[in-house]
# Entry
Amino acid sequence: MEYINKLKEYYSSKKFLENFIYDGNDLGVECDENGTTFRLWSPEADSIYLNLYEAGDGVKAYRHIHMKKEDKGVWSFYSDKELHGVYYDYLITRDGKEVLTADPYAKACGINGQKSMAVNLKRTNPSGWENDKAPQKGAERIVYELNVKEFSYDKSGGFPLEYRGKYKAFTCKHTTLNNDGIHPTGLDYLKELGVTHIQIMPMYDYGSVDETKDDEFNWGYDPVNYNIPEGSYATDAFHGEVRINEMKEMIQSIHEAGFGVIMDVVYNHTYSLDSWFQRTLPWYFYRAYSDGKVSDGSACGNDVASERAMCSKYILESVLYWAREYHIDGFRFDLMGLLDTDLMNNIRKELDIIYGKGEKIIYGEPWSATDTAIEYNKKVAGKDNIALLDENIGAFCDNTRDSIKGSALRPKEAGFVNGGKDKEDDILSSVSAWCDPKYNKEFEGVKAPSQIVSYVSAHDNQTLWDKLGDTAGKDEVMRLNKLAAAIYMTCQGTLFFLSGEEFGRTKGGLDNTYNMPIEVNKLDWELAWKNKELVDYYKGLISLRKKLSGLCDKSKGSYKHITDMWKQKQIVGFTINNDSTSLWSQVKVIYNASKKIFEGEYLKGNWEVLCDADDSSLWQKNISANSQIKVQPQSVLILGKR
# Structure
C-alpha cells in the first residue's frame, strides 16, 4: 500500500511531469513498405528488449533486440524492413526485475491478444475502402444496439454457417428467415425497420472468451487490447490481419446499407489489473485510495486513471484512431461516470475539429457502480455533472427509462405503463428530455435534448418484454410494449433501443446475461415474424417520428416546442408544435396507462388520427379526427393538425 502511494506521489511530481509526458502521436508500431518503427512509453525501465516471433502463439522468439532509450520515457527500434505480420512483445527490466508485456499501443495481435503484431494497415483495407463513408445525416437518429455474435448466430437468421456470429455475417446480402427468400433478416430487416445507426457492443479485443473456441460467449466488457478488433468474431483469429480486414468489411457493408456505426468503448477499466498498462508502468494507469486500496468504481476490479496526462492522451488517441482507421461514426462510453469531464470534452472538441461540429456521435452511461478515487480535483462525467459536459455529449436517461417501465434494477417495480403510481410528472419531464425548467427536478443542468438518450431497454437488465411480463398480466404485455415504445419515441432526445425489443425479445426473465451461453443471448429471428404486429408498430412510430420536427430538434430551447402539458391519474397529454417541414403544424399526444377508455375534448379544425392503440401508421391513411377524443385503455393516441 505504501508502495502504491509513493508511486502516486511520484507520478504527480514536478520531476515526472516535466520529464516523462510525451506529446508525440506515434507510440506503438508504424509499418509500411519503407520500414518499421517500434515505440513504447515506459519511464523507469532500465532496459527493454523487443522480441520478434513468427506466430501469434509463438513461445520462442527468433530475435531479441535491445531498444534505444529516447526522451520522455520512450524506447524505440527502427528496421528498414516492412515487418508486416511479424509478432512481438517486450521484455522490460525495472528495479532488477523482468516483466514480459505485449504492447498497449498495438494495432494488431495474435490469438487471444497475448502477442502484438506489426501491421501495414493499408494491406488490411477491403476493396473500395478509400471511398467508404457514413450515409448522409437524416432528420433524426435512431440507434439499434446489437452484439456481433448475438445478431447472426441463430440459424433462423439465414446466415451461412461459417459466418454465423462473425463480422462477415454483416457482409451477407439479402438474408431471409430460414432462407425462405421472403422474410428479410439482417441489414435488410433493419432498413425496413427504419433505424439509422447500429451500436455494436464491444468489438475491440477482450479477455473473457478463448478465441481458439467457438462455443464461448461474453458481451466483452473486458478490454485487453483497446486498439485491436476482437478475434472471436473473425473467421481466423490466429492471423492478426484477418480480424482487421473483416471488421472493416463489416463497417463498409453497414455503411453501404445506409446505417451509421457506433462503437461501444470501455475505457473505464481493464479485464485484469495484470494488464499491459500495469506491466509497462506500474500503477500509473490505475486509481487507488490514499490507504492503498485499489479503486473499484467499475465493480470489475479496477478503475482506469483517465485524469493522468498519458492515460488521458491514450484514450483520446484511441478514439481518434477508431474514427480515422475504421470510419467509426460515433462512440458509446461504458460507465462514462468514471471518466473525467475534461477528457470527455476534449474528445468532443478534437472530433469536432477533424470531422465537423457534432458529426461524430458521443454518448455514454452517466453513472458508475460505486465511487472512484479520482485525483487532481477532477470531476467525473456523471449525471450530476452533465452541466459540465459539451451539449453534444449525450447520456443515457435512466429517469426516462424507469418512469416508463419501472426500475431496471428492481424487476418487480412498475412504472407508468404497468401500473406504477405518481409517475405523471416524470413522464412529462421525459417528453421534453428533462430540459423544461418547469418539469425538471431530477436531472438538473441538462442543456439540450442532444444530451439525453431516451430509451427503455439496453443489453443490461431485463428485456422490455420480460420486465413487462414480470409486472403486469400476460395478456397485457403486447399492449404495454406498444405504449412504452410510443412514449419514448415521442420524447425529445436521441432514441435508442436493444435489438429485438421491437419483436418481444425474451431472455426468460434473466436480467444480466453477460456471460451466459449464446443460446440465451442470440436473436431469435422467428420472433420478428411471430410478433409482426409489434414490429409493424415500431416501424410506424419510427417513420412518424422522423416527420415531427418538434421532436427531432436537439438544440437548446427546443423544449419550447412542447406545450399544453396536462395530466390526471395514469393519463398524460401534450402538444408538439412543428415547423413548416412537417406535414402537421401541431400534434396532440395522449398516453393512457389506465385500464379505462379516456374521453377528452371535441376537436375542431383539420385534425387527423396519426396513431392509436393498434396502428401506428394511420398517418398514411387520412383518417379524420373531427369528433370527441377517445383513447383506448393502456395505449396512445396521436393526432395531427394539417
